[in-house]
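A student in our group prepared the protein record below, which I am reviewing. This is what I was given:
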Amino acid sequence: MRNATLAIGMAVALVTGQLPAETQVIGIRAGCRRAKEPGGTVVPGFPFNRPDGTGAIDLVVDPAGYPVGLYSSLTILADCPRCQA
């Protein structure tokens, strides 16, 4: 988890120049949907699975412009079993 948090923080700093808030979610797809509901946006290039297959990372920007990093221990397809069919 520590490495995932570090990766999110580095990605956010590179993309936005700001230090992010970070949170762990059960599934990245659901996290994206919840971030978009009040007007947030997903940063281009996100979400993606971690190269080592241990989860997925997303970066969203809330309606006020603050970046929020999302991490899930599930990969993008694993968080939606019916999507694999």
